Amino acid sequence: MGRMATSEERTSRRDPRYDVLFEPIEIGPKTLRNRFYQVPHCIGAGSDKPGFQAAHRSIKVEGGWGAVCTEYCSIHPSSDDTMRLSARIWDEGDVHNLSAMTEAVHAENGLAGIELWYGGPHAPCLETRQVPLGPSQVSSEFETGTHCGEMDLDDIQTVQGFYVDAALRARDAGFDIIYIYGGHSYGPVQFLSPYYNHRTDKYGGSLENRARYWIEVLEKVKDAVGSDCAVVTRFAVDTLYGTNGIEIERDGMKFLEMADPYVDLWDVNIGDIRAWGEDAGPSRFYNNGHQVPWTSFVKQVTNKPVVGVGRHVDPDQMVEMIESGTLDIIGAARPSISDPWLPRKIEEGRLEDIRTCIGCNICISRWEIGGPPMICTQNATAGEEYRRGWHPEKFPQKTSDDAILVVGAGPAGSECARVLMERGYITHLVDTAEKVGGHVNGISTLPGLAQWAYHRDYREIQLEKLVNKNRDSQVALGQEPMTVESILDYGADKVVIATGSFWNTDGFNPQTKQPIPGADASLPYVLTPEQVIAGDKPIGNKVLILNYDPYYMASTLAVKLAEEGHAVTVAGIETLNSYMEFTLEAPNMERAYHRLGVEQIEMVASRIEEGRVELYDMAGNNQPRQYRGPGKDPFGPNETHEWFEFDSVVLCTGKHSNNSLYRGLKERRDEWEEKGIKAVYVIGDAQAPRLFADSTFDGHRLAREIEEPNAQWPKPYKREMAVWGTVPSPTKNHEVEYQT
Ligand code: ADP
Ligand code: SF4
Question: Phi-psi category of 79—alpha, beta or left, where left has phi over 0 and alpha has psi -120 to 50?
């Protein structure tokens, strides 16, 4: 495959009002070719998966981003974030691995940045077993049980030396931009912030003293690599907890002035590590550009270029940011994951093709869980560039003339049909609903989730364009429900069932693996989430939401119903949905519960009757364990059962696949050949309920692999692993092979 033309080489069809976004800008000794800049963000590659790292970052440069950066990169084993995966630049091996990224980025005419990280108390060092050092001995408010040691004056020199050594190695690895990371409560900002810094020597006390460590690091790094590389610092200009931390107008601006001589580019954001959803703001709570009230002060005190984030997805707003003097460079993490080709689409005048980030933070959830590669709800190819060879914008052409029927136009079905059509297959996408989008149509009407509908909008627009290109394909909405009979007679060569799932109507739940006695959504006082969303069943004043689901539904319904004036209680295994800790939505959801008076009861349900629900404490059988005979709980009887009065009960107890079509077709397998059907597949929630990011992936995957002998089962992917006794693979010049 030949190299793509760079943005300069392509004929631009962009609207002139976006010209400012494509003006080059100097950052120290380097020139950024335009104003699109992928700030450091985690992907789960680090220096351990060089193929993933190189492919994920360089594909964005191909898509028009002028600079791309690594995630946080540890400078020394005393800054180790295992179980999460950071990059590391400890030795020549890391230099070798990370240079796969810089070479791939340079081949596309982009700049490569590296974010040098020293975590202090927020580095648990689970792998290295070293002691992290910080300005004062404090324990982390983010990690469990991590205390740091306090740096003495020798330690300060030593750690500053680690930055210099790491910067020299980074230059050797080919990086153009070298960060000193002082955002998200890490390293230098711990010295600057009185929240962490309780020193009484020349590194503590006054602002000048607290700033000293950071400024010295910058000075030393600039001396070492400043003529070859741009030196950048990421600065949380306001930690959002008042005088106890950094406030932009009080000390943030002063620090910017003090450190300015040593910085070629300021990368500014807000917030701390404990609540970093204030930086990576979920769309549920924050709109794009939400950091501007803080970051707009920065350019008042520096003439150096400033890059900032805030889920910048709107090209007009980007222009406004630059023209109003708020930012010089548009920084992005999530918008670049969701659409690695965002700048190129602006340049080519095809804004309608932008796959806009929905702000769900599922990408972040993977880092928070630790370990696994990042995924994205909108972009099924994110994280799959190297290992599966998936390019976000290029698709291998079809290898047969099979016509494919996809039943169900939710995230799985619509993505599957889109990719099949991109590949040139005649595809019919059929749904009873009037709109593409499946369950996303309903959930995006809930409070805070309107932007999740971008997921549907992207597919709706693309499908329309693709059908216009190939008139043999169709999107047939508002149809009669398809049946096993109608599918067998349809005339398709292959059938994909993407019929989604339903919330359980009988309280079947993960705790008992049984229905809850009395739970029946055909009764007037019992509702499923779908019924609440549909809004055609009356709901009483006092509502109990029974929740056994870790993600967003129960808490979002709680907010909706409380805002509508109901008295809401949430009870079950989950009261504030735990997965929302990973998506950074939990702290503000907790605030919403408090603001709206949503009550949480740590009890589960044993029985529902009209007007009341029996709840009990799962730890209520609390005797020492002993053998008590058949039918007797070894932990003793549970005497905490109690009736509570409620007018309506909402069951968020679990989901079941809507897979009757798939099962029915499998049962009539002996008729397939006669009807001309070669294969039937099931994808998305219809196979098993899951995140809609994973349903989207599933649809995409099947469309890419539909010619495989047993495409229901994913093909293996390339793994980047050390094989005992062999040369580590991939080697430095290992090519990324995109499917074409
Ligand atoms: P997923 O997340 O797996 O894509 P969704 O529940 O979002 O699942 O979407 C499933 C879609 O399938 C819905 O739009 C629904 O209307 C459609 N659907 C379900 N059963 C049928 C059927 N028998 N015929 C046509 N469409 C169906
Ligand atoms: Fe945006 Fe969600 Fe994708 Fe993250 S996972 S980039 S928030 S769409």
Answer: beta
CB 605 within 8 A of CB 651: no
Name the band, by pLDDT with cuts 50, 70 and 90, for residue 6.
Answer: very low
Verify whether ligand 2 is closer than 6 Å to residue 357 (CB atom). yes
* Token code pair at residue 24: 């080059």
Query: Domains (ranges, CATH) in the chain?
Result: 10-369 (3.20.20.70), 403-500+658-704 (3.40.50.720), 504-656 (3.50.50.60)
Ligand 1 centroid to Cα of residue 411, in Å, is 9
Q: What six digits make up the tokens of 55?
A: 């492919």
User: Percentage of the chain with pLDDT > 70?
Assistant: 97
CA of 309 from ligand 2 middle (Å) equals: 14
Q: Which 3-state string (H, E, C) describes 135-189? A: CCCCECCCCCCCECEECCHHHHHHHHHHHHHHHHHHHHCCCCEEEEEECCCCCHH
Does 443 contact ligand 1 (Cβ within 6 A)? no
Ligand nearest to the CA of 700: 1
Provide the 8-state DSSP code for 277: G
Res 7 pLDDT > 50: no
| Interior angle at CA 362, CA 319 and CA 453, nearest 5 | 60
Pick the residue whose CA is nearest to atom 11 on ligand 1: 408
Neighbouring CB atoms inside 10 A of 193's CB total 21
70 has a pLDDT exceeding 50 = yes
Active site residue 186: yes
Between the CA of 271 and the centroid of ligand 1 the distance, in Å, is 40
Backbone phi, psi, residue 467, to 5°: -65, -35
376 CB less than 6 Å from ligand 2? yes
**CA-to-CA separations, 171 to 163, 165, 174, 215, 476, in angstroms, rounded:** 12, 10, 5, 20, 55
**For residues 362 and 68, is the Cβ–Cβ distance under 8 A?**
no
* Paired tokens of 54: 């190189």
- One of 186, 196, 458, 551 is an active-site residue; which one? 186
Ligand 2 contact, 43 CB (< 6 A): no
Give the Å distance between the CA of 453 and the centre of ligand 2: 12
363 C-beta closer than 6 A to ligand 2: yes
- Ligand 2 nearest-atom number relative to CA 693: 5
Using a 6 Å cutoff on CB, does residue 500 contact ligand 1?
Answer: yes
Residue 655 tokens read as: 């989901």
Band (727; pLDDT cuts 50, 70, 90):
low
The ligand 1 atom at the shortest distance from the C-alpha of residue 481 is 24
- In this prediction, residue 372 has a pLDDT band, given cuts at 50, 70 and 90, of confident
What is the rounded CA–CA span in Å between residue 218 and residue 260? 10
The predicted-structure confidence for 269-322, as pLDDT tens digits, reads as follows 999 998 889 989 999 999 988 999 999 999 999 999 999 999 999 999 999 999
Distance CA 697, CA 684 (A): 8
Q: What is the CA radius of gyration of the chain?
A: 27
> Distance (Å, rounded) from C-alpha 489 to C-alpha 675?
7
Is pLDDT larger for residue 370 or for residue 709? 709
User: What distance in angstroms lies between residue 539's CA and the mean position of ligand 2's atoms?
Assistant: 33
Please state, in angstroms and rounded to a whole number, the distance separating the CA atoms of residues 565 and 38. 43
